[in-house]
Amino acid sequence: VLGIIMGKEIKKGKKGSAAEYYTRSQAIRKLQVSLNDFRRLCILKGIYPREPKKKFKGSDKTYYHKKDIHYLMNDQLLEKFRGIKAHMKKYKKAIVRGEKTQAKFLLKSKPTYSLHYIIKERYPSFPDALRDLDDALTMMTLFASFPTHEALKIPQETINVCQKLVAEFYLYVIASQSLSKAFLSIKGIYYQAVIQGVPITWIQPYKFTQKLPFDIDYKIMMSFAEFYIALLRFINFKLYKDGGIEYPPKELDPLNLTASTVFSLIQPSIKQMQKQIQQKTLEANPEGVEQKNQALDQFKSFRFYLNREVPQYSLEFLLLSAGCELGYDGSNSPFDESAEGITHHIVDRPLPSDLVRMNREYIQPQWVYDCMNHVVLLPTSHYAPGKTLPAHLSPFVDNRKEGYVPARQKEINQLKGTEEELEAAELVSSDEEEEKKEEAQIGVEKLDEDLTDEEKEEGKEKSKKLKIKKQIAKENRELGKLLMTKKARRQYMRIQHGQRIKREQIKKLEAKRKKLESTHRAGTTKKDQSSLAAKKFFFI
């Protein structure tokens, strides 16, 4: 009898997901650090949890790849964290013993660490760093708007550093004229700047008093802010150096960074910076200068004045990027309201007739954003003070892909003399097309009841042929589905499902637009009726 040769028994946890992943608790034990230090280390080094195919310890656990944990084990930052922990133990012991001089000395000589090597590891080239700047700028602008809070441990130093670095970046964007889009939303103001061919999009919160909720872990946010501060400092230095500008810029007053008009005070120095950057670009590209920013180039010949009630911090960022002359309602303004040569006066409330000047245009702030996003000077009559503003469309939505063009967009396209080609043909399936054809044919048959018997018979024959064609096409589609592989069939079904959802969204938007139009018409008719009734009453 031949004996059965048995293979070597594989021990549990030596193969598969269990051998490739650690749970969070296993990773913390392996690294011998606290949970807070582990989170901080992962954020700084850019290591995130993974999702294994088989969750061997349960679906409620967080998993990390073993390679990532072994990579952290050999990092110098881990040793620094351990050194800081040991040093703080000595400091606490000195406080308990009442050794005040020793405690002060230990607090001053607390070990520090640098994140420079991490920036170089994570971003081998400068464009890589620029691509990762979206989240960094959003976080930094958020921290710049925070108040100091002792209970939540948000230090004033971090807020001041964020304000300084964001102001430096904004100054470079203004000087390089690289701003391309701006959109006012409920969340905040969306901006997009194109620097060295890389689009950077971020959100700036409105300048309101911030109420900080207590159900958020600010320690994690502080860890992200620590890394983003180091990243933005590197990027600002590189941008200023490439532009031939001194860094840090002496023009920015650190005491004036929270004001609504930071950059309007330094308009002459901004023009100098713009010239320096243009010279550097000419030296780098002697054959020709890069294409001008069309979104901003249209405002160059204008002179603006901002009223007190408008968002000056946002409008000055847009208008100074365009190279405009800018005045505002304030003591340090380059020119006052009565100055000659003002082409556009931006207000956000109706003005009394005695204050209106004839030699300038009075507009609401939205006009600047809409003109910039659509790269066309829109008629100012729609944006006059006190008027109901037109729809403020997002420049980040691709109407061609969505398959729906808003009414306002159609109006702007007519002004520009362009048309948007939609991908509507892709959204409508062949089944729906044929159903529509059949319904149209039945409708024709119902309408043509007064025809002769011969014409009716011809119509019946045509309808029969259409039904046969439809049946053959349906059978061919079903056969095509049967011949598909399982993977291809699933993909096909997903595509159809996505198209169905898009069609439903388009129908909803169209219905919403019709409803708004009908309510607007009803409102106008009511106004007309009330005015007529008032006239009749007056004449009676």
In short:
With 540 residues, this protein is α/β, with parallel strands linked by helices. The chain contains 21 helices and nine strands.
Task: Give the secondary structure arrangement, pairings included.
Blueprint: H1 17-20, E1 21-23, H2 24-31, H3 35-45, E2 63-65, H4 66-73, H5 76-97, H6 100-108, H7 116-122, H8 126-131, H9 133-144, H10 156-176, E3 179-184, E4 189-195, E5 198-204, H11 218-242, H12 267-284, H13 294-297, E6 303-306, H14 312-321, E7 325-328, E8 344-346, E9 361-363, H15 366-374, H16 399-402, H17 407-416, H18 424-427, H19 430-447, H20 453-483, H21 486-539
Parallel strand pairs: 6-7, 6-8, 8-9
Antiparallel strand pairs: 1-2, 3-4, 4-5
Helix pairs in contact: 3-11, 5-6, 9-10, 9-11, 10-11, 10-12, 10-14, 19-20
Spatial extent as radius of gyration: 33 Å
Q: How many β-strand stretches?
A: 9
Principal-axis shape equals flat
How does the major sheet shape up? 4 strands, parallel
The DSSP helix count reads 21
Question: Can you put this structure into words, describing what you see?
Answer:
With 540 residues, the protein is an alpha/beta fold. Helix content is 55%, strand content 7%. The protein contains 21 helices and nine strands. It has helices spanning 17-20, 24-31, 35-45, 66-73, 76-97, 100-108, 116-122, 126-131, 133-144, 156-176, 218-242, 267-284, 294-297, 312-321, 366-374, 399-402, 407-416, 424-427, 430-447, 453-483, 486-539, and strands at 21-23, 63-65, 179-184, 189-195, 198-204, 303-306, 325-328, 344-346, 361-363. The chain has a four-stranded parallel beta sheet, with helices on one face. The protein has a three-stranded antiparallel beta sheet with strand order 3-4-5. A hairpin with a 2-residue loop joins strand 4 (189-195) and strand 5 (198-204). Helix 10 (156-176) packs parallel to helix 11 (218-242), helix 10 crosses helix 12 and helix 10 (156-176) packs parallel to helix 14. The protein is flat. The N and C termini lie far apart (123 Å).
